[in-house]
Design brief:
The complex is a heterodimer of chains A (about 375) and B (about 80). Chain A has about 375 residues and is α+β, with helices and mostly antiparallel strands. Helix content of chain A is about 40%, strand content about 15%. Among the domains of chain A are: about 5-45, no CATH class; about 130-215; about 320-365, Orthogonal Bundle (DNA polymerase, domain 1), CATH 1.10.150. Chain A has helices at about 15-25, 30-45, 50-65, 85-95, 120-125, 130-135, 150-155, 160-175, 195-210, 240-245, 260-265, 265-285, 290-300, 320-325, 330-340, 350-355; strands at about 105, 130, 135-140, 145-150, 175-180, 185-190, 210-215, 220-225, 230-235, 255. In chain A, helix 4 packs antiparallel against helix 12 (about 265-285) and helix 11 (about 260-265) runs antiparallel to helix 12 (about 265-285). The mean pLDDT of chain A is about 85. In chain B, strands 1-3-4-2 form a four-stranded mixed sheet. Chain B has helices at about 25-30, 45-50, and strands at about 15-20, 40, 60-65, 70-80. The longest helix of chain B is centred in the middle third of the chain and has 10 residues, at about 25-30. Chain B has about 80 residues and is of the alpha+beta class. Classes of the chains: A alpha+beta (about 375), B alpha+beta (about 80). At the A-B interface, helix 1, helix 11, helix 12 and helix 13 of A face strand 2, helix 2, strand 3 and strand 4 of B.
Chain lengths: ~375, ~80
């Protein structure tokens, strides 16, 4: 609840300021302080006509020159290599569809986040092929059969049995092979009249690749302790499937693929993700960029309802002016296309007016004078 | 690994609160801002689908801002 004396400022000042005044000021001085804060707030507002985009570009660009290009790898340490530094910034700002390293942070529900069964859960998330649940493939050359000796420990983790594996194989091989359960193991033989060893070897390789469990797309899992809880880091990403899992905390689990976030959580979530990802890179590099700049960039990228990168195919292609588009990249292509369709340039923005040596609509150039007769 | 749970998009940390504006609120808003040229949001956006909004509706978004606490943002629903 807002203090009585602060009520008149609600809607005029940001909530965070009001809250801070209320928390830090003695009740007697609240009115005076609020007045001073309000004055200061009004003075620090950006004035109309200020080129905020330009300021942001400089404020992100300058520290960008100091960023390290190399990503570090630590030999022998259990960690995953994720794109960092400048390459990552470029990736985010371009809004690339296929990013170089996808990863997810999977948070767990109670009681699992305290470390209970994390390894098992991680194994359940990882995409598993036949190759990793079979201990041994032995080819019986005389009878032309393959004996699959199954890894029972792994099967129980994945909640599978030899019966279930048989079903999966039958479905995947589409009746080209005969699969029999022999105790805990399986025996695979070719169907049809022509049987030879070559085909059997091919079948073996085919079996290795068959998907048996886990979540498709997740190639590596790594349970780690972060602060007081255990989370699972992954290589590869599949938000939709992971968020539906029973033991996953669906409120905090995220991916670093912004397009995936946009698809599953919407454009507003994507905006938030862009800001967070940028901020994370900037902070890990030990640089200091104000969030407001990153927020502005994220807002421009998301304002059309779709994720648009700062590229000639994204944000720049939305510009109304031909000359402005031509001044960014591939000028000749833009000029030729514009002249073919007879585009009109209304000279409403900055770049085109600079080209034509006219006042730009910025600062004092934004206003016109009207005289009364 | 059978799961019946369906995750709720509104509860996710990254998703701010989306609200559909009523006609009265829209006319109120148009007095304050020029709402002709405001940012867009697609009808197919998961957060909009949840609200069952139609093309042309306005959506109010309550963001948790890093600098100003809670801030309001508006988007117009458009077809893809």
């Amino acid at each position: 609840m807002v203090h009585q004396e602060l009520k008149e400022y609600v809607g005029k000042m940001p909530e965070s300021l009001l809250k801070e005044i209320e928390e830090t000021c003695p009740a007697a001085k609240i009115k005076k302080v609020a007045k001073l804060v309000f004055e200061e707030y009004e003075n620090s507002k950006i004035s109309a006509g200020e080129a905020v985009g330009l300021v942001s570009a400089e404020s992100i660009g300058e520290p960008g020159t100091q960023m390290t290009l190399n990503t570090f790898h630590f030999a022998g340490v259990a960690e995953m290599s994720v794109t960092k530094g400048l390459p990552r910034i470029i990736e985010i700002l371009d809004a690339r569809k296929n990013i170089s390293t996808q990863t997810m942070d999977i948070y767990l529900n109670s009681p699992y986040y305290k470390g209970k069964d994390v390894r098992t859960l991680a194994m359940q998330i990882k995409e598993t092929n036949m190759d990793s649940v079979v201990k041994e493939f032995s080819i019986n050359v005389v009878d032309l059969k393959i004996d699959l000796i199954l890894d029972t420990e792994k099967l129980t983790v994945l909640d599978l049995s030899s019966k279930k594996v048989q079903k999966i194989l039958e479905k995947a091989l589409d009746k080209t092979a005969l699969i029999e359960v022999k105790g805990e193991n399986l025996e695979v033989s070719l169907k049809g009249k022509e049987k030879d060893l070559n085909q059997l070897y091919k079948l073996k390789e085919k079996i290795k690749e068959i998907y048996v469990g886990g979540i498709k797309g997740i190639t590596q899992v790594l349970p780690v302790r972060r602060k007081e809880e255990y989370i699972i880091l992954t290589a590869g990403s599949n938000l939709r499937k992971v968020l539906d899992l029973e033991f996953v905390d669906g409120t905090r689990t995220t991916s670093n693929d912004i397009h995936e976030i946009k698809k599953i959580l919407g454009i507003e979530a994507a905006r938030q993700a862009v800001i967070e990802e940028l901020l994370q890179v900037v902070e890990t590099q030990g640089l200091n960029v104000d969030v407001r700049h990153l927020m502005l960039v994220a807002d421009t990228m998301c304002s059309s309802g779709e994720l648009k990168g700062i590229t000639r195919y994204g944000v720049v292609s939305e510009k109304a002016s031909v000359l402005a588009r031509a001044s960014f990249e591939t000028p000749i292509k833009h000029l030729i296309n514009a002249s073919i369709v007879g585009e009109i340039d209304y000279l409403n923005s900055v770049v085109e007016n600079v080209m034509l040596n006219q006042p730009v609509p910025l600062g004092t150039g934004m206003v016109r004078l009207i005289t009364k007769k | 690994m059978t799961s019946t749970k369906k995750f709720e998009i509104n509860k996710h940390r990254l998703v701010p609160k989306h609200n559909l504006l009523s006609e009265k609120e829209v006319s109120q808003l148009s007095k304050q801002y020029s709402i002709k040229d405001i940012p867009k949001i697609l009808v197919t956006d998961p957060a909009v689908e949840e609200l069952k909004a139609k093309e042309g509706d306005l959506i109010k978004i309550e963001r948790e801002s890093l600098t100003a606490g809670r801030t309001l943002f508006y988007r117009r629903v458009v077809n893809a």
